[in-house]
Amino acid sequence: MDAARVRAQLTVQDLWLRYLALGGTGDAFDLDGYLQGLVPLEPFQQDVLAQALNEALTEQYRSHLIPLSTPTALDGPSDERVRRLMDQLLNETAPARQADYEPRPDGGS
């Protein structure tokens, strides 16, 4: 995990603050000792620490992404694109459903 901390460019203190923010209960000395392989952490505390590191690595990774010239689906489609798609889907399926529908003689559906 210490290699991940270095990769995320975090000091032990920065990582400890992130760890605390996620509910970690160890102190900075425990965390430093664990990263050096000297002190054990409970499994839940290890998971909290891993989550803190994963979030930091994700933030760093995203900051280095090169934007595409064309928006992707992750960028969120415009309202106009969604409206056109919905109109197209509704117009294609609505007539087929209406043609299949025949009212019952007793007035029920």
Please describe what this structure looks like.
The structure is a single chain. The protein is built from 5 helices and no strands. With 109 residues, it is mostly helical. The termini are far apart. The mean pLDDT is 83.
Helix segment tally: 5
Helix content: 55-70%
Determine Rg (CA atoms, Å). 27 Å
| Cα-to-Cα separation, first versus last residue | 63 Å
Give a brief description.
The chain has 109 residues and is mainly α. It has five helices and no strands. The protein is 61% helix and 0% strand.
Outline the fold blueprint:
Blueprint: H1 2-7, H2 12-21, H3 28-35, H4 43-63, H5 79-100
Helix pairs in contact: 2-4
Provide keyphrases for this structure:
109 residues, mainly alpha
